[in-house]
Amino acid sequence: MPEQESDHPEQDYLVRPVGWVASPLADRGDAPRQADEGAPPARIVLRPELREAAAGLAAGDRMLVLTWLHRGRRDVLAVHPRGDTGRPRQGVFGTRSPDRPNPIGLHAVTLLAVDGDTLTVDGLEAIDGTPVVDLKPVLGPIDER
């Protein structure tokens, strides 16, 4: 039996940043579309009261960084992939466009260093000032978890 719309009332959810990106990338136009296209090393500066949440992180760890793409447009539902007007428009859920109903970014990074509230990472194409919503480890094989 199909669920009714009333089974899922629209709600707002409060999400507070755990930190912010500090990067030499200052503007969307300067940022590579994906990290493997030239993202420079960057830092994630955690809120000081969350320092304990980073306990156990070490250089070499692979992490998933979830960001709030604060300069993304939330009213965009379809785009030309990679901004190429020669390609057909596609729904944003099938792309990595920063413009989407909930502009959440997902970035696979390598942790280079941990220094107090600051994590230095490689492979983060987010621009300076981007809010970081969460950090999660990339899981290894089952026997190493």
From TrEMBL:
PROSITE patterns in alphabetical order: TSAA_2 (PS51668)
Protein's UniProt keywords contain S-adenosyl-L-methionine: yes
Lineage: Bacteria, Bacillati, Actinomycetota, Actinomycetes, Micromonosporales
Residue numbers spanned by region Disordered: 79-101
InterPro entries for the chain: TrmO-like_N, YaeB-like, YaeB-like_sf, YaeB_N_sf
Residues annotated as domain TsaA-like: 15-145
Family membership noted in the UniProt record: Belongs to the tRNA methyltransferase O family.
Lineage: superkingdom: Bacteria
Gene3D superfamilies given in the database record: YaeB-like
Keyword check for Nucleotide-binding: no
Keywords attached to this entry: S-adenosyl-L-methionine
UniProt-listed CDD domains: UPF0066
Full protein name: tRNA (N6-threonylcarbamoyladenosine(37)-N6)-methyltransferase TrmO
Pfam families reported for this sequence: TrmO_N (PF01980)
Signal peptide (from-to): none
